[in-house]
Amino acid sequence: MAKQQFGVLGLAVMGQNLALNAESKGFSVAVFNRTQARTDEFMAGAAKGKKVRPTYSHEELCAALETPRKIMIMVKAGEAVDEQIELLKPHLEKGDILIDGGNSFFKDTERRSAALEKEGLLYIGTGVSGGEEGALHGPCMMPGGPKKAYTALEGIFTKMAAQVDDGPCCAYIGAAGAGHYVKMVHNGIEYGIMEILAETYDIMKRVLGMSAGEMHETFRQWNDAELGGYLVEITRDIMAKKDDLAGGPLVEAVTDTAAQKGTGKWTSQEAFDIGCPIPTISAAVDARILSGYRAERLAAEGAIKMRRKEFKSDRARAVKALRGALYASVIVSYAQGMAMLKRADEEYGYKLNLPEIARIWKGGCIIRSKLLDPMKLAYKRKRGLANIMVSPFFKRALKKASPDWRRTVKLAVDYGIAVPAISASLAYFDGYRTGRLPANLTQAQRDCFGAHTYERLDREGIFHSRWQ
Predict the structure, then answer these.
(1) Chain centroid offset of residue 116 CA
(2) What mean pLDDT value characterizes the chain?
(3) Residue 326 CA: distances (Å) to CA of 286, 295, 331, 391, 408
(4) Is 362 in the active site?
């Protein structure tokens, strides 16, 4: 029996769709799932009649593949990945390639890669973004690990990936855990934009009194213009979806508790570790955590009664301001993520190609948007660019949006609407463009109570004073 070219271990929705994607691009595929019934169901359904071969053990999966074997592991991040690696290892040979396509923590990827390298095996952590549809039709793929592993996989990955005007949405990211690091930051940016959109919706609904239909039309107009992107697009569509059970907009029937799988939290924790401020993304993580306190929030709403003001101003002007605030805040979410990648490059020596990362995010992935072309161009024009906010395109956009941005934050404050991500974005913008921050007082306080010393602006050296 002929050997298959590509293996997929784990047949949840993402694994199934990636297997079908590879097969549709001309590659024969062997699949395995620890639950036989899942494999049988897949073969009798979506894989029926396709060049997909079922296997029913780790040994059989490895025996079904041509060498060097290329096996994509699509299981839950954490212990499950380690478990599958250990079960595969007895049936592998030197030079075989294991691909972790899940949302693994980058340090776990680096640990696994180093351990497997000692045994002659190649391990490539590959961030995959695009959800179910992207996995099936073309995701954004962010592989990181040994370059020779990527070289062996490039022909498959670049065909599986989404295609945009300047190439496939896949590129070699860098050594060790670089691929999963970039995917982690991608997800952090995603958290930020999603929260910014949620806050925009909250103002539209609770302050401006807009109906779901009006919001749908507004997001449609914005998506057709400068705010065009996948997350704005699906927000537009969500506003138009009717509830088949109770009538009215379906979004209003959804419980206001947002779950998370951990990548946003990892982004925030890692940003603290490397000393990179990402307040928009961290605010988005906090907002999801706060949403989980629903019972306490409902009790507090009854206990802390506040008089609700009625909006009597110019609604069209407020919507225009909201558009500017959304646009500026989304730019800042990208800016923080890209600045974090630049800082991580300095910390870990990944040699990240920032214009290329912006390019591959243009298609397939969740944060694809019209902003990625000017972002790619900004990094191409100035390779050492510290932050996209100071590049010509984004500097102009932020300055132009600044009055509407401030007007929107003030509106939210006046009406008691929490906008942690939008306000954090504005504070980051204002802080970053301030040449002298009040941190001199903070350092003086540290020296006063803890003798932590300080530096002076007017002379060299380290100083300590008796402040009291």
Answers:
(1) 28
(2) 96
(3) 19, 29, 9, 19, 9
(4) no
